Amino acid sequence: MSKFKLATIVTALAVAASILALGQPAAAADRTVKIAGWGAKSGPLRSFGVNSEAVLKAAVKSINDSGGVKLGDGTMAKMEFTYYDSACNADQAISVVRKVESQTEALIGIGPTCSGAAAAMYGIFQKKVDDAADTGLQFPILTDTAIRPGLAKKSQWTFRNVPNEITMYDEMFKWLRGRYPDVKTIYGGTETDQAHSRITFAAVIVPMAKKHGFEWVGGGIKEVTGKVAGGMKQVLEVSKSSNWLLADTSFSVQARAFKRSGADMMIVSSHPFTTCGMLKEMRRQRIKPKVLVGLTSSSSAETLKGCGAAAEGMYIPTGFAPITEAAAKVAAAAEANGGAADLHSAAAWENAHIIKQVVEATGVMAKPDTLKADRRKVRDGLEALAKVDGLMGEIGRVQDEGESIKPYVFVQGQSNAWKVVHDPR
Amino acid sequence: MSYYLGLAQLIGIHTLLGLSAYVLMLTGQLSLGQAGFFAIGAYCAGILTVIFELHIVPALLIAALLAAFFAFLVGFPALRVKGLMLVVATIAFGEFVRLFFFNLSWRVPRDGIHVGPDSTNGFREIRYFVANGWSAWEITLFVWTFVLLVMAALWWTDRSRAGAVLRAVGEDELAAQSVGLSLTTVKVTAMTAGGFIAGVGGALYAHTATYVDHLTFTVLLATFAISYPILGGLSSVFGTLVAVIFIQGVLVEGLRFMGDWRSIVFGLLIVVAMNLKPSGLFDARTARLLRRAVGLRGGEKSRA
Amino acid sequence: MSDFWFEFVEITQTIGDGLFFGATYALIGIGFTLIFGAMGKLNMTYAAASLAGAYAGLAAFAFVDAPAPVVFLISALASGVLGFVAYLTCFRFIPINNHLAALMASIGGLFFIDEMVVHATDGSPLTFPALFDDVMFDVGPYGVRGDLLFVLAMCVAGTLALLYVLYRTRLGLATRAVSQQDVAAQLCGIDVHRTNATTFVLAGLLGGIAGAMTASAVGVLSPLITVPLTVKGLIVTVIGGLGSIPGAIAAGLLVGGFENFFLYFRGVNERDMYVLLLLFIFLVFRPQGIFGSGADRD
User: Is the complex ipTM more than 0.85?
Assistant: First the structure.
């Protein structure tokens, strides 16, 4: 019995010790550039976190393989990253950013996945740097995934490297206008309980289509101003029966609403699950629009897994496609790490390289006692960036908003893959 | 430090959420609608500090009273049903509230930007704390002042005749009625108190998170609300606190070192805990043992 | 006149579509009602286990290209096994009168099953083989989805089989005995645990079919729908009357039709509010449900 007890105690101590060891990485004798990533690795959106982590891992490896990052005093330091699960949940995203800021030596954070979590997380940051009255968090963020329009300007500490949907859809409808001169009328629906799909639909996609001479039919959207600031009510009067919710399973009414509208072009502005549900219902009802346009977020592997055949012919603008040598390399590396590079996760690669560039440009020291100053340098460096090299070409920075203007291509679903059909770069 | 303070705030707020369900459970009512009252508190307090630029304390109290008022209204029809029917009825109430806020858009211009709840786009800029220079310590202290007040009030109630009345109704309605207790009064009072507590929690939540949208207040949050008192046990208010620390502190944050396994272990550990301690992690027996261990006179107040 | 006719066809088609799709809700509702009828308890793992069963069937389809009947069979079996495991882990060893602990354990089970599915699939939506997906019956101006007709037929067949088991076999007798008076049943020599376990397995088998049916009706499977399906199943159970299988079917169809009707007239943002109002109306005016007797509404 006493032997058993002893064994129990020893085991418990060993477990406790290992937990402590895991919790506190060995004190850094050599200097490293630490970064933190987080995203949804549990819950229905797990693929986003898995993809981002896979790409980030590949990016950090490539940086270290080519010598690492040059610090302010000329030392070459390795880059190191930790990835956390924030589960598409505002509380967890806030907890993680607080943990990373106060418990680790990370210089910058990359995340989160969900725009709702990002909106909450950005909110706890200091709004304007050097505003002593504002006790918000002071830690730079360079988000890779959360794409809802207009988030990063919430704080001067938050930056994003996500596609700019306004330009993408503007150019795409211009291109479609030329390609399909006989297509006149458009109609569509969106997931109204998801801010990204709904806002992009009402404030970006439809206004851009109208700008290029397509005629919105079937009522529904009344006064499309293209301005989100005044609130959803001013942006659109939600049409009666053409929209759906994120977890909806039946789409017969929405599909028939499209059929009734008789429009030439159909817009399906939603995430992969319901995009698939809607496309499948349209097939059942034998509805074949002349042109089908989707939401940026649907240009991913998820849509192909869910309904590759039904997505045949759908046009989507996207900020990533493996068409350059670098992009193809990243796609392969992500796959080797058990993820996929898509318009969201590929940004993690670019972010790691942007961070390297900023660290080198601002002379970050990466010493424990320079942590606060280093983070500030990284933030200032990010703000100062006017343009950076991305996987698909040059990425422009909207400096006062912390947003980016990324190069893009138009893809189309063709035999279970996204084929690049137009490259405006 | 800000990490632990943030976590302490979250634990405090979820304790309030759990306690709001705890009060109801004492009277034998299981409500999956507490997320609804939490949402009312969150949106109302947010609107008051952001749109009407009120001080946080009156905003919080008004929000809690409004949540209590709705709970009072819900209390009457809820009397008609119990058990699973009540569970589903309260789910429906909570979802109804969520859908109301899903459709609510009320924006006013302030300092060059528009603020206020905005339907799917959520309710941003509830930055009363940080904008007024509150430090993380002060926010935590503020949150816990309310948590401790509520806990003390419930603790005191539990030890007074009122607590006995609540539990009597929870144990056996018929017997309680036959000794002259009014079920309507007791149950509606409990519902109202639960609404008030959830309202306080929601108001604090909106201000610590700075952002809420309708997806914050789903059935999942309501499930957490009832999870805390069940997991902690109904023997005292501390059960709920213990359970919140167990779930938010240990299962969600403490197990981060487990990486991918964390989310799997989460559900598994709840199942294990309920099998090992069906009447709660902090049941009457544990409470007695603990009291004895710290040298207080223990054991005389035993409860089933 | 033709406008009126057109609108009439639209509306009836809309409601009809909803009614048929409601068959999938009915199947989930039946499972909840069955276990509630037998044990007086809520098994929150049910919808998650049903969908997990569908995933198992999908795996069979993906890896060995199993034909549709086999996919459904595997779904049912997997979900039956999960039902048994759920009984063992969430109900068997928890004191029979401790409803809260059993409920909580099954909530833990729901999280666990859901997260296992998420980890196995990375949460990505997966295409599910459709049954008679392209079969559309044209009845005059109306179109009826063949696969939903099949779901409805399965619903009725499953119910008939259940009713047969419950009212024509010894096992059913034992189940009903346990559900009415477990102590008396025990005194008569009925093994309560075994009977309850069997009920869970039966409900699980049905759940697997329900999950596969739902998945094939949607055409896509995703862990996104677990919680909404659980909620909808519970609403259907209550509207149908706790413990009433025919009630669950009627309620499933009713909810489906109601959803589409309000989707058509009021839009998706308000749709679910009307479904909840329907539930409130039932709770206030007819708490015993559609076919309930009114005697027992706890």
Answer: yes
